[in-house]
Specification:
The protein is mainly beta. The chain contains one helix and five strands. The protein has one domain. The protein has a five-stranded antiparallel sheet with strand order 4-3-2-1-5. The longest helix is centred in the last third of the chain and has 11 residues. The chain is elongated. The termini are close together.
Length: 88
């Protein structure tokens, strides 16, 4: 699973740049039975260049039917950073 979204990211000079159809994936997850840390990487659609890498921590729900990776995707979609993200 991965996400696709139109995102705006500031470049190294602080100028906002738009990246249509950016590819967003969970690169790594780690944690224990109560908390998960997910590293999320975002790439350009056109040439696959890494745009951004961020880490998000959230509560892991052991009772959920969803595995840790699915819960991580659901969590990052709920944050509002990727409002138009769709699963691919």
């Amino acid at each position: 699973m991965a996400l696709k979204a139109n995102i705006t990211q500031n470049d190294s000079w602080g100028i906002p740049r738009e990246f249509p159809n950016a590819y967003i994936k969970i690169a790594r997850i780690s944690g224990d039975k109560s908390r998960i840390d997910a590293v999320v990487e975002t790439y350009t659609e056109k040439d696959g260049v890494l745009i951004n890498s961020e880490s998000y921590m959230f509560d892991y729900d052991l009772e959920s039917a969803d595995n840790a990776i699915t819960q991580a995707y659901n969590h990052i979609k709920s944050l509002g950073r990727y409002p138009d993200a769709v699963g691919i």
